[in-house]
Specification:
mainly alpha; Four Helix Bundle (Hemerythrin (Met), subunit A)
Length: 195
């Protein structure tokens, strides 16, 4: 009789050690995104020695957007902690703030790239503009995907009819949001150094 209960405990412990399938899928996707951006930034470095390559100044809006996305990474982490502690009112407030900061980040990015476009770095001419807009455009798409999920979580947080405390979706968006934050920091430093 003692043996089955020990086996039962081992099974529960083994299940706790396993990674959730959604988390595993997210990490595989993040690995693919890392490889894509590593390839694009490497190609940018190789191509920049071509004749007629255009350089550009980093717009002030990029500095502001960097501060905004760092702040949003803090708010999503605080939202995750609030959800774990079942402080739902605080969670709702923080997930809303994170979504708003994500939208503000996107607006500041558009302002920044408009400035670069108006300074003469366009899709014509050297490949600088083409690479720049492809790299940044792909990042914006990934941020947009995160903002859409944040808006969905915002709606669910305020629906209030069901009392579901499934932490996995909140952990997933938190991980993803930290990832797009770190990805932007990498790209921002890259743009600062390479221009």
């Amino acid at each position: 009789m003692i043996t089955p209960s020990i086996e039962g405990k081992e099974t529960v412990n083994e299940q706790r050690k396993k990674i959730h399938p959604h988390k595993f899928t997210l990490w595989v996707g993040l690995g693919s995104i890392i490889m894509m951006f590593a390839g694009l930034t490497s190609a940018y470095i190789v191509k920049r020695d071509q004749a007629g390559w255009t350089t550009f100044e980093i717009p002030r809006a990029f500095w502001y957007s960097t501060a905004v996305i760092l702040l949003s990474s803090l708010t999503v982490q605080m939202a995750l902690k609030s959800f774990r502690d079942r402080e739902m009112q605080n969670y709702r407030r923080l997930i809303t703030l994170t979504a708003v900061l994500g939208l503000l980040f996107m607006v500041l990015q558009i302002v920044g790239f408009r400035h670069i476009w108006n300074s003469g770095v366009t899709l014509r001419g050297s490949g600088a503009g083409q690479f720049l807009y492809v790299i940044a455009g792909l990042h914006i798409l990934h941020v947009l995907g995160g903002v859409i999920v944040l808006v969905i979580m915002f709606v669910k947080a305020f629906a209030g009819r069901t009392r579901s405390y499934n932490i996995v979706p909140v952990e997933l968006i938190s991980t993803y949001w930290h990832f797009v934050d770190l990805l932007w920091i990498y790209l921002f430093i890259f743009f600062l150094l390479i221009k």
